[in-house]
Each structure stands twice: as C-alpha cells, then as structure tokens.
Design brief:
Blueprint lengths: L8 E12 L2 E12 L3 E5 L6 H8 L7 E6 L2 E2 L5 H7 E4 L11 H6 L14 H13 L15 H14 L4 E5 L7 H14 L2 E5 L3 H7 L2 E6 L2 E6 L1 H4 L2 H8 L1 E7 L6 E10 L1
Parallel strand pairs: 3-8, 3-9, 6-7, 7-8
Antiparallel strand pairs: 1-2, 1-4, 4-5, 9-10, 11-12
Helix pairs in contact: 4-5
Length: about 260
C-alpha cells in the first residue's frame, strides 16, 4: 500500500524580503504550514520573527515575495476574507480593554458579520463555546483589565477561536507568562488540534510541542525541519551564542535541552 499523501499546505510564504531604511530585516525567507501542524518560528531578539509574521498576516506588505493562504495571495483577498481564514494573536494584542471578557471575545465574530449587524444568538453561543474551550467561561463577566497575564492570554485565545478560522498565527504567546502558565497555554494550543504558526522564544517549549521548526538569524533562515533536526548543540551555539547539551528523549523522541549559562560564546 502506498503511503498517504501529506496534508495540503494551508499557508505558503515564498521569498519574503522586507527592509527598514537601509537595513534588511527579513531576507529571502520561505516557509509553509500544512493542515493540522503546529509550526514554530524561532530566533533570538531582532532576528525578524515578528516582522515575518506581520507580512504573513498582512500587517506589512513585503518588498518582494508572496504569501498565499488557501492558495490565494493574501494581498489579493479582502481583509475580511483573510480574517475569516486566519486568526492572529499578536504581541500588540496584550493591551488593556475597558470591556467585559465576553465582549472582548465577541470581537472575534466581527469578520462574520455584515456592516451594522447586531450580534446574533449564534455569535453568543460561539463566544461561550470559545471561552469554555480555554477554560475561561467563569471569567465571562469580569473586566478584561482586572485579569492576570495568564487569564488575559486565555481570553485573547478565546477571541481568536471565536473567529472560527483554519489557521492561528501567534506571536510569542507565552511572553510574560510564568512556567506553569506557559505549559498550560501550549497544552491548550496543542489540544485544540488547529493549524498553528507560532513565534516562540523558549526552545524547550518549541522542542516539546512543535511538529516542525524554522530558525532565523539576522533575518535569514538558517535551519528548518523537525525539532530533532533543528535543535542541536551546534546550531544553538551558532544562533544564540550559548552552550547547551542536547539529548533525544527515549520516550518522546524529542530534544531535551540543558543550557550551560556559565559557558557563553
């Protein structure tokens, strides 16, 4: 019996370039995300991760290259069509809302509503379901500004789920979270089974949760593949300038990373 074909590429970015003034921020980067994958985007501060994601979710127009969602150039689709296909949890989303949690999540229904349409019973049901998925339903009547950092991230994730898209794009979703809340959020993302592209800082999280990784340095793609292929001691030393011991878990087959902070390169 011949092997099953791989899942279709839901997102494909090819040859992306972007520069600010005379500085090239992203240089000829290509990546793809298949249906059902959790793909991690890694790199040190200033490597171009957020800029690359902004081109993918149509916040920045690339100087060259193309981003296709569901086989269509995102810049040839309307903003509404893109919002129906791709939900974004960006770092800028962490601001304060002077709204109840349920109203913040309801904002995720906007791409599915016609102009001046009132919120429907279906919209309210989807908001309730989304909050339940992230275990935040008891927070529904709380003010968003009163929540902890971990609670806010769960609510913003619920807002993304309420969009009912085929792709989640997450820019450092575990930023500012303590270790427990990092694990809780990544477990949640993994359990949802949604196609996801996430920029991450924490290499152990990427090693444990992601199906494939793309690693950036100074705006260029330096490695791609499974966590075991990308996260080895040599590559970590080259990109991050730190020494690490890496072994493969006999239970999961994934890299286990131990940093040696006294041995900086």
């Amino acid at each position: 019996m011949s092997p099953a074909p791989p899942p279709a590429r839901l997102l494909e970015a090819s040859g992306l370039h972007w520069q600010a003034v005379a500085t090239q921020i992203v240089k000829d980067v290509s990546l793809h995300v298949r249906e059902g994958e959790l793909v991690g985007l890694l790199g040190p501060n200033g490597s171009g991760k957020s800029t690359l994601l902004r081109m993918i979710y149509r916040m920045l127009r690339p100087d060259s290259g193309v981003v296709c969602m569901e086989g269509q150039d995102v810049w040839r689709r309307s903003a509404r069509d893109n919002a129906r296909a791709m939900a974004v949890l960006a770092q800028e989303n962490a601001g304060e809302f002077d709204l109840r949690v349920c109203d913040v999540v309801l904002m995720g229904r906007t791409p599915h509503q016609s102009s001046f349409a009132r919120d429907s019973e279906q919209d309210f049901r989807i908001v309730e379901q989304s909050l339940a998925q992230v275990r935040a339903l008891p927070l529904a009547q709380r003010m968003f500004s009163s929540l902890s950092g971990g609670e806010k991230q769960r609510v913003l994730m619920a807002r993304a789920l309420a969009q009912q898209t085929r792709l989640l794009v997450l820019d450092e979703p575990t930023n500012h979270l303590d270790v427990r809340h990092q694990f809780e959020l990544m477990n949640l993302i993994r359990s949802l089974g949604l196609t996801t592209l996430a920029a991450l800082h924490e290499l152990p999280l990427a090693a444990h949760y992601c199906d494939r990784l793309y690693l950036l340095k100074s705006g260029e793609l330096v490695a791609q593949g499974t966590p075991a292929q990308v996260l080895n001691a040599e590559t970590i030393a080259e990109v991050y300038g730190v020494c690490a011991q890496v072994r493969i878990s006999g239970r999961s087959g994934r890299p286990l990373i131990e940093f040696m902070p006294d041995e900086l390169l």
